[in-house]
Every structure is written in structure tokens, then in C-alpha cells.
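Spend some time on the protein that follows and explain the fold to me:
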Amino acid sequence: QVQLVESGGGLVQPGGSLRLSCAASGFTFMNYDMYWYRQAPGKERELVGSINTRGGITDYADSVKGRFTISRDNAKNTVYLQMNSLKSEDTAVYYCYRGGGFWGQGTQVTVSS
């Protein structure tokens, strides 16, 4: 069965960095575009960005452009979200998404001093 398992979340100070990972299994990872979403308390889930199957094309929400980078390693069936220059408004649960209704369980990112 399809599984997506995020890791790497935690507490970080403003201006700091984190790298999230999403390990995929149960499907042919290299055939799917992958997505990162986030949901802050009291807000709707929003798209952070996406990456195409080969990793050569990425797209980002305006709120994270220039600070976040999505990459993937198809040999490891893993997609990454590198987050730099973090702000308090980046605090959210971050989710990996494959499409077709398949979500990871999420990982909490808290940006606070």
C-alpha cells in the first residue's frame, strides 16, 4: 500500500533552517510528481510547492519562494523540503502528498524564539 512518512520537523528559532524528508513506499516513486503542503492552526491546508518526476522542475508558493527548496532522490524514494530563513508564520504541520488522495501523517514545524 502507498505510504508516505515525513520526518525532520521540530522547533527552530526565526532565521533558522530545517530539512524535512518524506520517505515513500508502495508505488513507483519516480513516476509521480510530488507535493509539499502545510496547515497552520486555524487555517486551511495550503500548497507549499511541487517537484516533477525527474526533479528538474519545481514550483513554490510566493510565501516561500527564495527560502524553501524541494528536491528528490528517486534512488531513495524520498522527497525533501529544505527550509531556510524560517519565520514564525512558517509554523505549521507539513505534509507530503503524492496525488490520488495519498497523504503522509505530517510533521510539526514550530518557528519560535
In short: The first strand starts at residue 3 and ends at 7. The mean pLDDT is 97. The two ends are 40 Å apart (CA to CA). Residues 4 and 22 are 6 Å apart (CA to CA).
